[in-house]
Amino acid sequence: MVIRHVNGILGGLIGAGILLFSAQEALAQSGQCGKSREVGAKALDEATYKQLNGVYEDVGEEKFNDAFNELQKMLNRAGRDEYLQAILHQALAQVEWSRENYDPALSHFEKAVELDALPNQAHFALMYQIAQLYFMKERYDDALERLDLWFCTAPEEKITSGAYVLQASIFAAKLDYARALTAIEKAISMDENPKEPWYQLKLAAHYELEQYPQAAQTLEIMITRWPEKKIYWTQLAQTYYKLKQDDKALSVAALAYRKNLMDKQADVMFLSSLYANSDVPYKAAEVLQKGIEDGIVESTERNWTATADNWYAAEELEKALVAYEKAGQAASDGDIDLRRGYILVDLERWDAAREALDNALEKGGLDERKTGEAYLLRGMAQFNLGQLDRASADWGRASRYPRTKDAAQQWINHLREERRRRAS
After folding, report:
1. d(CA 184, CA 207)
2. Which residue in 20, 99, 188, 239 has the fewest CB atoms around it within 10 Å?
Protein backbone atom coordinates (compact mmCIF):
# COMPACT_ATOMS: atom_id res chain seq x y z
CA MET A 1 0.00 0.00 0.00
CA VAL A 2 2.83 2.35 0.82
CA ILE A 3 4.54 1.50 -2.41
CA ARG A 4 1.34 2.22 -4.34
CA HIS A 5 1.15 5.65 -2.72
CA VAL A 6 4.75 6.43 -3.57
CA ASN A 7 4.20 5.30 -7.12
CA GLY A 8 1.07 7.45 -7.28
CA ILE A 9 3.09 10.56 -6.46
CA LEU A 10 5.71 9.50 -9.00
CA GLY A 11 3.07 9.03 -11.67
CA GLY A 12 1.67 12.46 -10.89
CA LEU A 13 5.08 14.02 -11.32
CA ILE A 14 5.73 12.25 -14.57
CA GLY A 15 2.47 13.59 -16.01
CA ALA A 16 2.54 17.02 -14.40
CA GLY A 17 4.68 19.09 -16.68
CA ILE A 18 7.97 17.44 -17.48
CA LEU A 19 8.45 17.40 -21.24
CA LEU A 20 8.70 13.76 -22.33
CA PHE A 21 10.74 12.54 -25.36
CA SER A 22 12.42 9.02 -26.53
CA ALA A 23 13.48 5.80 -28.87
CA GLN A 24 15.16 2.35 -28.57
CA GLU A 25 18.95 2.26 -28.20
CA ALA A 26 20.31 -1.19 -27.52
CA LEU A 27 22.80 -1.68 -24.72
CA ALA A 28 23.51 -5.30 -25.56
CA GLN A 29 27.25 -4.84 -25.00
CA SER A 30 26.91 -3.04 -21.68
CA GLY A 31 26.25 -6.07 -19.59
CA GLN A 32 23.34 -4.26 -17.97
CA CYS A 33 20.74 -4.34 -20.70
CA GLY A 34 18.41 -7.25 -20.28
CA LYS A 35 19.97 -8.18 -16.99
CA SER A 36 17.34 -9.72 -14.74
CA ARG A 37 16.69 -7.97 -11.46
CA GLU A 38 15.46 -9.88 -8.47
CA VAL A 39 14.31 -7.97 -5.41
CA GLY A 40 12.54 -9.84 -2.69
CA ALA A 41 9.20 -8.68 -1.34
CA LYS A 42 9.60 -6.30 1.58
CA ALA A 43 7.25 -4.42 3.88
CA LEU A 44 7.34 -1.55 6.33
CA ASP A 45 6.47 -1.88 9.98
CA GLU A 46 3.22 -0.35 11.17
CA ALA A 47 4.83 2.70 12.86
CA THR A 48 6.86 3.62 9.75
CA TYR A 49 3.82 3.10 7.56
CA LYS A 50 1.79 5.55 9.67
CA GLN A 51 4.59 8.12 9.62
CA LEU A 52 4.79 7.94 5.84
CA ASN A 53 1.06 8.35 5.52
CA GLY A 54 1.34 11.52 7.60
CA VAL A 55 4.08 12.77 5.27
CA TYR A 56 1.91 12.06 2.20
CA GLU A 57 -0.93 14.03 3.77
CA ASP A 58 1.43 17.01 4.21
CA VAL A 59 2.49 16.67 0.57
CA GLY A 60 -1.15 16.57 -0.52
CA GLU A 61 -1.75 19.80 1.41
CA GLU A 62 1.43 21.31 -0.09
CA LYS A 63 3.13 21.48 3.31
CA PHE A 64 6.40 20.61 1.65
CA ASN A 65 8.70 21.98 4.34
CA ASP A 66 6.97 19.92 7.04
CA ALA A 67 7.11 16.83 4.85
CA PHE A 68 10.80 17.35 4.13
CA ASN A 69 11.71 17.76 7.81
CA GLU A 70 9.81 14.63 8.81
CA LEU A 71 11.41 12.59 6.02
CA GLN A 72 14.88 13.73 7.08
CA LYS A 73 14.21 12.60 10.62
CA MET A 74 13.01 9.23 9.38
CA LEU A 75 16.09 8.87 7.16
CA ASN A 76 18.39 9.59 10.10
CA ARG A 77 16.69 6.75 12.02
CA ALA A 78 16.56 4.31 9.08
CA GLY A 79 19.81 2.58 10.05
CA ARG A 80 20.87 -0.12 7.59
CA ASP A 81 17.42 -0.77 6.18
CA GLU A 82 18.18 -0.10 2.50
CA TYR A 83 14.59 -0.65 1.42
CA LEU A 84 13.36 2.05 3.81
CA GLN A 85 16.23 4.34 2.81
CA ALA A 86 15.30 3.97 -0.87
CA ILE A 87 11.64 4.81 -0.17
CA LEU A 88 12.65 7.84 1.89
CA HIS A 89 15.09 9.10 -0.76
CA GLN A 90 12.38 8.67 -3.36
CA ALA A 91 9.91 10.66 -1.25
CA LEU A 92 12.53 13.34 -0.48
CA ALA A 93 13.17 13.70 -4.18
CA GLN A 94 9.48 14.31 -4.84
CA VAL A 95 9.32 16.94 -2.10
CA GLU A 96 12.44 18.70 -3.38
CA TRP A 97 10.98 18.65 -6.87
CA SER A 98 7.79 20.25 -5.57
CA ARG A 99 9.94 22.95 -3.93
CA GLU A 100 11.73 23.43 -7.28
CA ASN A 101 15.02 22.30 -5.78
CA TYR A 102 15.99 20.23 -8.79
CA ASP A 103 19.62 19.44 -7.97
CA PRO A 104 18.79 17.96 -4.53
CA ALA A 105 15.83 16.15 -6.12
CA LEU A 106 18.19 14.53 -8.62
CA SER A 107 20.60 13.49 -5.87
CA HIS A 108 17.83 11.76 -3.93
CA PHE A 109 16.53 10.01 -7.04
CA GLU A 110 20.04 8.76 -7.83
CA LYS A 111 20.51 7.52 -4.28
CA ALA A 112 17.18 5.66 -4.38
CA VAL A 113 18.27 3.84 -7.55
CA GLU A 114 21.79 3.25 -6.28
CA LEU A 115 20.44 1.39 -3.24
CA ASP A 116 18.82 -1.08 -5.70
CA ALA A 117 16.21 -2.08 -3.14
CA LEU A 118 12.88 -0.94 -4.60
CA PRO A 119 10.53 -3.21 -6.56
CA ASN A 120 10.94 -3.19 -10.33
CA GLN A 121 8.07 -0.80 -11.10
CA ALA A 122 9.32 1.91 -8.76
CA HIS A 123 12.98 1.26 -9.61
CA PHE A 124 12.49 1.61 -13.38
CA ALA A 125 10.21 4.63 -12.97
CA LEU A 126 12.97 6.36 -11.01
CA MET A 127 15.50 5.61 -13.73
CA TYR A 128 13.17 7.24 -16.24
CA GLN A 129 12.69 10.26 -14.02
CA ILE A 130 16.42 10.64 -13.59
CA ALA A 131 16.80 10.66 -17.38
CA GLN A 132 14.27 13.50 -17.52
CA LEU A 133 16.15 15.47 -14.89
CA TYR A 134 19.48 14.95 -16.66
CA PHE A 135 17.84 16.30 -19.79
CA MET A 136 16.57 19.37 -17.95
CA LYS A 137 20.08 19.92 -16.52
CA GLU A 138 21.49 19.66 -20.08
CA ARG A 139 23.47 16.55 -19.18
CA TYR A 140 22.47 14.96 -22.45
CA ASP A 141 24.90 12.05 -22.56
CA ASP A 142 23.96 11.06 -19.02
CA ALA A 143 20.29 11.39 -19.93
CA LEU A 144 20.69 9.10 -22.93
CA GLU A 145 22.66 6.54 -20.97
CA ARG A 146 20.03 6.38 -18.23
CA LEU A 147 17.17 6.36 -20.72
CA ASP A 148 18.74 3.62 -22.81
CA LEU A 149 19.17 1.49 -19.72
CA TRP A 150 15.55 2.14 -18.82
CA PHE A 151 14.45 1.12 -22.32
CA CYS A 152 16.13 -2.27 -22.14
CA THR A 153 15.08 -3.10 -18.58
CA ALA A 154 11.57 -1.68 -18.27
CA PRO A 155 8.61 -3.93 -19.12
CA GLU A 156 7.47 -3.48 -22.72
CA GLU A 157 4.01 -2.30 -21.67
CA LYS A 158 5.59 0.57 -19.72
CA ILE A 159 7.36 1.98 -22.79
CA THR A 160 5.04 4.69 -24.08
CA SER A 161 5.15 7.32 -26.80
CA GLY A 162 6.26 9.84 -24.19
CA ALA A 163 9.52 7.96 -23.68
CA TYR A 164 10.30 8.24 -27.39
CA VAL A 165 9.52 11.94 -27.27
CA LEU A 166 12.07 12.32 -24.47
CA GLN A 167 14.69 10.49 -26.47
CA ALA A 168 13.98 12.57 -29.56
CA SER A 169 14.36 15.78 -27.56
CA ILE A 170 17.69 14.67 -26.15
CA PHE A 171 18.99 13.79 -29.61
CA ALA A 172 17.76 17.15 -30.94
CA ALA A 173 19.55 18.95 -28.11
CA LYS A 174 22.72 17.09 -29.16
CA LEU A 175 22.05 18.20 -32.78
CA ASP A 176 21.71 14.55 -33.82
CA TYR A 177 18.66 15.21 -35.96
CA ALA A 178 18.64 11.89 -37.81
CA ARG A 179 18.19 9.91 -34.59
CA ALA A 180 15.84 12.56 -33.22
CA LEU A 181 13.67 12.03 -36.31
CA THR A 182 13.64 8.25 -35.87
CA ALA A 183 12.58 8.64 -32.25
CA ILE A 184 9.85 11.21 -32.78
CA GLU A 185 8.37 9.27 -35.69
CA LYS A 186 8.19 6.23 -33.42
CA ALA A 187 6.38 8.32 -30.79
CA ILE A 188 3.88 9.64 -33.34
CA SER A 189 3.20 6.15 -34.67
CA MET A 190 2.40 4.87 -31.15
CA ASP A 191 -0.12 7.54 -30.22
CA GLU A 192 -3.67 7.97 -31.48
CA ASN A 193 -3.51 11.70 -30.81
CA PRO A 194 0.07 12.93 -31.29
CA LYS A 195 0.80 16.29 -29.68
CA GLU A 196 1.56 19.42 -31.67
CA PRO A 197 5.10 19.82 -30.19
CA TRP A 198 5.92 16.33 -31.47
CA TYR A 199 5.16 17.36 -35.02
CA GLN A 200 7.08 20.59 -34.49
CA LEU A 201 10.13 18.54 -33.47
CA LYS A 202 9.69 16.25 -36.48
CA LEU A 203 9.40 19.26 -38.80
CA ALA A 204 12.49 20.91 -37.32
CA ALA A 205 14.48 17.71 -37.85
CA HIS A 206 13.42 17.52 -41.51
CA TYR A 207 14.50 21.13 -42.05
CA GLU A 208 17.84 20.60 -40.32
CA LEU A 209 18.46 17.53 -42.49
CA GLU A 210 17.32 19.50 -45.57
CA GLN A 211 14.58 16.94 -46.20
CA TYR A 212 12.20 19.41 -47.78
CA PRO A 213 9.78 16.96 -49.44
CA GLN A 214 9.32 15.22 -46.07
CA ALA A 215 8.94 18.60 -44.38
CA ALA A 216 6.15 19.45 -46.84
CA GLN A 217 4.40 16.14 -46.10
CA THR A 218 4.62 16.83 -42.37
CA LEU A 219 3.21 20.33 -42.81
CA GLU A 220 0.32 18.95 -44.84
CA ILE A 221 -0.64 16.91 -41.79
CA MET A 222 -0.12 19.86 -39.45
CA ILE A 223 -2.43 22.23 -41.35
CA THR A 224 -5.08 19.52 -41.25
CA ARG A 225 -4.74 19.05 -37.50
CA TRP A 226 -4.22 22.72 -36.61
CA PRO A 227 -5.80 24.70 -39.48
CA GLU A 228 -5.93 27.92 -37.46
CA LYS A 229 -2.12 28.08 -37.13
CA LYS A 230 -0.95 30.51 -39.78
CA ILE A 231 2.73 29.58 -39.46
CA TYR A 232 2.14 26.09 -40.84
CA TRP A 233 0.39 27.45 -43.93
CA THR A 234 3.16 29.93 -44.66
CA GLN A 235 5.87 27.34 -43.99
CA LEU A 236 4.17 24.89 -46.34
CA ALA A 237 3.84 27.49 -49.10
CA GLN A 238 7.48 28.51 -48.68
CA THR A 239 8.63 24.90 -48.67
CA TYR A 240 6.75 24.19 -51.91
CA TYR A 241 8.32 27.32 -53.37
CA LYS A 242 11.78 26.08 -52.36
CA LEU A 243 10.98 22.78 -54.06
CA LYS A 244 10.06 24.77 -57.22
CA GLN A 245 6.46 23.60 -56.96
CA ASP A 246 5.06 27.07 -57.54
CA ASP A 247 1.52 25.91 -58.32
CA LYS A 248 1.25 24.16 -54.95
CA ALA A 249 2.86 27.11 -53.18
CA LEU A 250 0.31 29.46 -54.73
CA SER A 251 -2.64 27.18 -53.89
CA VAL A 252 -1.62 26.96 -50.23
CA ALA A 253 -0.88 30.68 -49.88
CA ALA A 254 -4.11 31.66 -51.64
CA LEU A 255 -6.17 29.40 -49.40
CA ALA A 256 -4.48 30.85 -46.30
CA TYR A 257 -5.28 34.33 -47.67
CA ARG A 258 -8.96 33.43 -48.03
CA LYS A 259 -8.89 32.22 -44.43
CA ASN A 260 -7.61 35.70 -43.42
CA LEU A 261 -4.34 34.22 -42.15
CA MET A 262 -2.03 36.28 -44.39
CA ASP A 263 -2.01 39.35 -42.20
CA LYS A 264 1.58 40.58 -42.40
CA GLN A 265 3.36 42.54 -45.12
CA ALA A 266 5.72 39.66 -45.91
CA ASP A 267 2.72 37.34 -46.35
CA VAL A 268 0.95 39.63 -48.79
CA MET A 269 4.13 40.37 -50.73
CA PHE A 270 4.88 36.65 -50.99
CA LEU A 271 1.40 35.83 -52.27
CA SER A 272 1.51 38.70 -54.76
CA SER A 273 4.87 37.54 -56.08
CA LEU A 274 3.53 33.97 -56.46
CA TYR A 275 0.64 35.29 -58.56
CA ALA A 276 3.02 37.37 -60.66
CA ASN A 277 5.41 34.45 -61.19
CA SER A 278 2.45 32.30 -62.24
CA ASP A 279 1.40 34.88 -64.86
CA VAL A 280 -1.66 36.01 -62.95
CA PRO A 281 -0.81 39.74 -62.78
CA TYR A 282 -4.39 40.84 -62.07
CA LYS A 283 -4.49 38.91 -58.78
CA ALA A 284 -0.93 39.99 -57.99
CA ALA A 285 -1.95 43.64 -58.28
CA GLU A 286 -5.29 43.17 -56.53
CA VAL A 287 -3.76 41.45 -53.47
CA LEU A 288 -0.96 43.96 -53.17
CA GLN A 289 -3.16 47.04 -53.56
CA LYS A 290 -5.66 45.74 -51.01
CA GLY A 291 -2.77 45.12 -48.63
CA ILE A 292 -1.65 48.72 -49.01
CA GLU A 293 -5.16 50.12 -48.64
CA ASP A 294 -5.80 47.96 -45.55
CA GLY A 295 -2.62 49.21 -43.93
CA ILE A 296 -0.93 45.80 -43.94
CA VAL A 297 1.60 46.75 -46.62
CA GLU A 298 3.55 50.00 -46.40
CA SER A 299 2.42 52.73 -48.78
CA THR A 300 5.82 53.23 -50.41
CA GLU A 301 7.03 54.06 -53.89
CA ARG A 302 8.31 50.51 -54.31
CA ASN A 303 5.04 48.83 -53.32
CA TRP A 304 2.85 51.12 -55.40
CA THR A 305 5.21 50.63 -58.36
CA ALA A 306 4.95 46.85 -58.05
CA THR A 307 1.17 47.21 -57.91
CA ALA A 308 1.14 49.44 -60.99
CA ASP A 309 3.48 47.15 -62.94
CA ASN A 310 1.13 44.23 -62.32
CA TRP A 311 -1.95 46.23 -63.30
CA TYR A 312 -0.11 47.24 -66.49
CA ALA A 313 0.82 43.59 -67.19
CA ALA A 314 -2.86 42.73 -66.73
CA GLU A 315 -3.72 45.49 -69.25
CA GLU A 316 -5.69 47.35 -66.59
CA LEU A 317 -4.33 50.70 -67.69
CA GLU A 318 -6.62 52.94 -65.65
CA LYS A 319 -5.76 51.08 -62.45
CA ALA A 320 -2.11 51.13 -63.42
CA LEU A 321 -2.25 54.91 -63.86
CA VAL A 322 -3.73 55.41 -60.38
CA ALA A 323 -1.06 53.22 -58.83
CA TYR A 324 1.76 54.88 -60.78
CA GLU A 325 0.49 58.28 -59.69
CA LYS A 326 0.66 57.25 -56.03
CA ALA A 327 4.12 55.81 -56.59
CA GLY A 328 5.21 59.01 -58.32
CA GLN A 329 4.07 61.13 -55.39
CA ALA A 330 6.60 59.34 -53.19
CA ALA A 331 9.36 59.17 -55.80
CA SER A 332 12.43 61.38 -55.68
CA ASP A 333 13.18 61.04 -59.41
CA GLY A 334 11.07 61.20 -62.56
CA ASP A 335 11.11 57.51 -63.55
CA ILE A 336 7.57 56.72 -62.34
CA ASP A 337 6.10 59.85 -63.96
CA LEU A 338 7.77 58.81 -67.19
CA ARG A 339 6.05 55.41 -67.03
CA ARG A 340 2.76 57.20 -66.52
CA GLY A 341 3.58 59.35 -69.51
CA TYR A 342 4.01 56.30 -71.74
CA ILE A 343 0.54 55.02 -70.84
CA LEU A 344 -1.15 58.41 -71.23
CA VAL A 345 0.43 58.91 -74.64
CA ASP A 346 -0.84 55.46 -75.68
CA LEU A 347 -4.30 56.51 -74.48
CA GLU A 348 -3.93 59.83 -76.34
CA ARG A 349 -4.72 61.76 -73.17
CA TRP A 350 -2.43 64.59 -74.16
CA ASP A 351 -2.97 67.08 -71.31
CA ALA A 352 -2.38 64.45 -68.64
CA ALA A 353 0.57 63.06 -70.60
CA ARG A 354 2.22 66.49 -70.82
CA GLU A 355 1.72 67.03 -67.09
CA ALA A 356 3.23 63.64 -66.21
CA LEU A 357 6.21 64.25 -68.51
CA ASP A 358 6.70 67.76 -67.10
CA ASN A 359 6.98 66.14 -63.64
CA ALA A 360 9.38 63.51 -64.92
CA LEU A 361 11.76 66.04 -66.44
CA GLU A 362 11.43 68.46 -63.51
CA LYS A 363 12.31 65.77 -60.95
CA GLY A 364 15.16 64.51 -63.14
CA GLY A 365 17.33 61.62 -62.08
CA LEU A 366 16.72 59.90 -65.44
CA ASP A 367 19.49 58.27 -67.41
CA GLU A 368 20.37 59.43 -70.90
CA ARG A 369 17.98 57.09 -72.70
CA LYS A 370 14.98 57.93 -70.51
CA THR A 371 15.67 61.66 -70.69
CA GLY A 372 15.61 61.51 -74.48
CA GLU A 373 12.38 59.49 -74.42
CA ALA A 374 10.74 61.98 -72.04
CA TYR A 375 11.47 64.87 -74.41
CA LEU A 376 10.31 62.82 -77.39
CA LEU A 377 7.00 61.91 -75.73
CA ARG A 378 6.39 65.40 -74.42
CA GLY A 379 6.97 66.71 -77.94
CA MET A 380 4.22 64.35 -79.16
CA ALA A 381 1.85 65.63 -76.48
CA GLN A 382 2.65 69.26 -77.34
CA PHE A 383 2.14 68.57 -81.03
CA ASN A 384 -1.30 67.02 -80.49
CA LEU A 385 -2.27 69.95 -78.26
CA GLY A 386 -1.38 72.32 -81.09
CA GLN A 387 1.74 73.64 -79.31
CA LEU A 388 3.95 73.27 -82.37
CA ASP A 389 6.83 75.50 -81.23
CA ARG A 390 7.06 73.69 -77.92
CA ALA A 391 6.89 70.36 -79.72
CA SER A 392 9.74 71.43 -81.98
CA ALA A 393 11.83 72.47 -78.97
CA ASP A 394 11.28 69.13 -77.20
CA TRP A 395 12.15 67.11 -80.31
CA GLY A 396 15.22 69.24 -80.78
CA ARG A 397 16.33 68.29 -77.27
CA ALA A 398 15.47 64.61 -77.91
CA SER A 399 17.64 64.65 -81.04
CA ARG A 400 20.71 65.29 -78.84
CA TYR A 401 20.45 61.79 -77.38
CA PRO A 402 21.71 58.86 -79.50
CA ARG A 403 18.82 56.51 -78.63
CA THR A 404 16.10 59.03 -79.62
CA LYS A 405 17.91 61.00 -82.29
CA ASP A 406 16.39 59.26 -85.33
CA ALA A 407 12.84 59.25 -83.97
CA ALA A 408 13.13 62.91 -83.01
CA GLN A 409 14.34 63.82 -86.47
CA GLN A 410 11.40 62.00 -88.06
CA TRP A 411 8.99 63.99 -85.88
CA ILE A 412 10.78 67.22 -86.73
CA ASN A 413 10.40 66.39 -90.43
CA HIS A 414 6.74 65.59 -89.85
CA LEU A 415 6.34 68.94 -88.08
CA ARG A 416 7.80 70.77 -91.09
CA GLU A 417 5.34 69.04 -93.40
CA GLU A 418 2.51 69.94 -91.06
CA ARG A 419 3.51 73.59 -91.03
CA ARG A 420 3.70 73.63 -94.83
CA ARG A 421 0.27 72.04 -95.01
CA ARG A 422 -1.15 74.62 -92.69
CA ALA A 423 0.54 77.49 -94.53
CA SER A 424 -0.91 76.35 -97.90
Report:
1. 14
2. 99
